[in-house]
Specification:
- By secondary structure, the chain is mostly helical.
- It contains 21 helices and no strands.
- The chain folds into three domains: 194 residues, MFS general substrate transporter like domains (Growth Hormone, Chain: A), CATH 1.20.1250.20; 72 residues, no CATH class; 206 residues, MFS general substrate transporter like domains (Growth Hormone, Chain: A, Up-down Bundle), CATH 1.20.1250.
C-alpha cells in the first residue's frame, strides 16, 4: 500500500480506515479531556485539590487494562462495528457525569468508568485488519494508530481554548468536556450505520469460544495462564498507590486485593474451560499457532507503548529542570513525542510491509529503542539543547515505529483471534506504563531512562528467541485453516439467511 493511497477516499477500505481512525481520535480526545483543564477545575471547584486530581489521573487508567481484555473478547464475538459504536455511546454517559459532577464521588466514579474508553484502540485494530490484506496491514494499522492516537494531543491543544473562548466563565471547563462527550456519542451512532465488519460477511471470523484465548498445546495453555496473571495483578499497584495517597483505608485495600485475586482465579478457570476440551480433542496441524509469538509481542508493547506513556508524563519536567526552560517551552519540546507519532507509527507499519520480514523489522525497532533511551540516560545540562531534542525525536521515531510494527504482525498470527490477541498486547502496553511510572517515583530521570532501555533490550532478546515470522504475512488473503472453515459452515447453518 502506497502513502498516496490514503487519499483515495472512494476505495471502500480507505474509507473504512478514515472512519475508524477518526473514531479512535475522538475516543482518545475524550479519554484525555481532564488534564488540559485541570487548572480551570481547581479554580472553579472550591473543594477540589491537586491531590484529588492526581487520584483522578490514576482512575483514568485504572480499568483500561481489564477493559482491553474484555473488549478483545467482545470483538471476536460481536465484531468491531457494534463494539466501537456501543463503546462510544455508552462511555459518553460517564463523560457527561464527570462534566457536571458536583461531588467527589460523582467525579471519582465517572472517571473510573470512563477509563474503559482506553480500550477503543484495540477495536480499530481489529476493524482495520478486517478491511486490509496481509501485505498492506502494517501501514494501515500504523496510520490508524498514529493519527487516532493524536486525539490526546489535540485535546491538550484545543480544550483550554474551547473552554475559555467558546463558553468562558467558571463552568467553561464543564461545557468543553460535555461537548466532547456529545460529539463522541453522535459519532458512535453514525459509525454504526457508516461501516461494516470488513468488505463481506466472511471477513469477520469468529472463534469457537470468546471467554478466553484459544491455544494450540498444553504448554501454551500454561504460558497463557502465566501471562494473564500480570494483566489483572498489576491493578494491585494502583490500589497500593491510592492507599498510600490516603484515599483508601487498609480494610478497603485488603478487599480490593481480594477482588483482584478472585478475578485472576476466574480468568484462569475460563482459560481451562475453553482450552481443555479443545486440547483433549486435538488441534489440527493446520490450525496450530505459537503462543510464544503472542508473548513476544506482549513484551514489545510493554516496552514501547508503556515507555511512551511513562516518558510523556515526565519529559516536560525533565527538560524544564535540566536546561532551566520555561514550562511552556519544555511542554512544547515534550510534545514532539506526540507529533512524531503522526509519521513514525505509519512508517513503522510501512517498513514492516516493505521489508518482507516483519520479525526482522520488529527486532531492529526494539534494539533502536534501547539505544535511544541509553542516549537519553546520558543527557545532562552540559549537552546542547538541540542535541537533546534530536535524541528525543530519534528515540520517539523508534518507540512509535515499534508500536506500528507490533500491530503489523498481530493480525497475521491467528486471524479469528485477532481481537483477543490485540486486547492482550494492548493491555500489556498499559501494564508497562503502570510499572514504569511506579518505578519512576523511586529513581532519578537518568536511572529511569536506563531502566526503560533495559526493558527494550530484554524485549529484543525475547523476540529473538520466541517471535516467529507469521505464515502468509505478505499474501493477498489471510490463511484459513480447517477449523476456520468448520466454524464458518456452522455459522452458515445457524444463520442460513446471511
Amino acid at each position: 500500500m502506497k502513502v498516496s493511497s490514503v487519499f483515495k477516499f472512494k476505495n471502500p477500505e480507505v474509507r473504512a480506515l478514515h472512519l475508524t481512525w477518526i473514531a479512535f481520535f475522538i475516543t482518545f480526545y475524550v479519554w484525555f479531556n481532564m488534564a488540559p483543564l485541570a487548572s480551570s477545575m481547581l479554580k472553579s471547584v472550591d473543594w477540589l485539590t491537586t491531590d484529588d486530581l492526581k487520584l483522578f489521573a490514576i482512575c483514568n487508567v485504572a480499568l483500561t487494562i481489564p477493559a482491553r481484555i474484555l473488549v478483545g473478547m467482545a470483538l471476536d464475538r460481536f465484531g468491531p462495528r457494534r463494539v466501537f459504536s456501543i463503546l462510544m455511546v455508552v462511555m459518553s454517559i460517564p463523560a457527561l457525569v464527570f462534566a457536571f459532577g458536583n461531588t467527589m464521588t460523582q467525579l471519582l466514579v465517572s472517571r473510573l468508568i470512563l477509563s474503559s474508553i482506553g480500550a477503543s484502540f484495540v477495536v480499530g485494530i481489529h476493524m482495520t485488519a478486517l478491511w486490509f490484506k496481509p501485505k498492506d496491514i502494517g501501514f494501515a494499522e500504523g496510520f490508524y494508530a498514529g493519527w487516532g492516537n493524536f486525539g490526546s494531543a489535540a485535546a491538550a491543544m484545543s480544550l483550554p481554548t474551547i473552554a475559555l473562548t467558546m463558553y468562558g466563565g467558571d463552568d467553561g471547563w464543564r461545557w468543553a468536556i460535555a461537548q466532547s462527550a456529545v460529539v463522541m456519542a453522535a459519532y458512535g451512532v453514525y459509525y454504526w450505520f457508516a461501516i461494516t465488519d470488513g468488505p463481506d460477511q466472511k471477513a469477520h471470523r469468529k472463534p469457537r469460544k470468546s471467554a478466553a484465548l484459544e491455544v494450540s498445546t498444553w504448554g501454551d495453555m500454561i504460558k497463557l495462564i502465566l501471562w494473564t496473571i500480570p494483566l489483572v495483578g498489576v491493578l494491585a499497584i494502583l490500589v497500593w498507590r491510592i492507599e498510600v495517597m490516603g484515599y483508601l483505608s487498609a480494610t478497603g485495600a485488603i478487599i480490593a486485593y481480594l477482588v483482584i485475586v478472585a478475578i485472576v482465579i476466574y480468568q484462569i478457570i475460563q482459560i481451562l474451560r475453553v482450552n481443555v476440551p479443545i486440547l483433549k480433542k486435538g488441534v489440527p496441524e493446520d490450525d496450530k499457532y505459537s503462543f510464544n509469538s503472542v508473548a513476544a509481542l506482549n513484551t514489545t508493547y510493554f516496552a514501547n507503548f508503556g515507555a511512551e506513556l511513562a516518558v510523556v508524563s515526565m519529559l516536560p519536567m525533565f527538560f524544564e529542570q535540566t536546561w532551566g526552560l520555561t514550562a511552556a517551552a519544555a511542554g512544547l519540546i515534550a510534545a514532539s513525542f506526540a507529533f512524531v507519532n503522526l509519521v513514525a507509527r505509519p512508517m513503522g507499519g510501512m517498513v514492516s510491509d516493505r521489508m518482507g520480514n516483519r520479525r526482522f523489522v520488529m527486532l531492529c525497532y526494539m534494539f533502536g529503542i534501547g539505544i535511544g533511551f541509553v542516549l537519553m540516560g546520558m543527557l545532562n545540562a552540559s549537552w546542547p539543547l538541540i542535541v537533546a531534542i534530536a535524541i528525543t525525536i530519534f528515540t520517539s521515531i523508534f518507540v512509535q515505529g515499534a508500536e506500528g510494527a507490533t500491530f503489523g504482525i498481530i493480525p497475521s498470527i491467528k486471524r479469528r483471534l485477532t481481537g483477543q490477541i490485540s486486547g492482550m498486547a494492548g493491555a500489556y502496553g498499559n501494564v508497562g506504563a503502570v510499572v514504569y511510572l511506579t518505578i519512576f517515583t523511586f529513581v532519578t530521570p537518568t536511572q529511569f531512562f536506563y531502566i526503560i532501555a533495559t526493558g527494550a533490550f530484554l524485549s529484543w532478546l525475547v523476540c529473538l528467541i520466541w517471535l516467529k515470522e507469521p505464515e502468509g504475512a505478505f499474501d493477498d488473503e489471510y490463511y484459513v485453516s480447517s477449523v476456520d472453515r468448520q466454524i464458518e459452515e456452522q455459522n452458515a447453518a445457524l444463520h442460513p439467511s446471511k
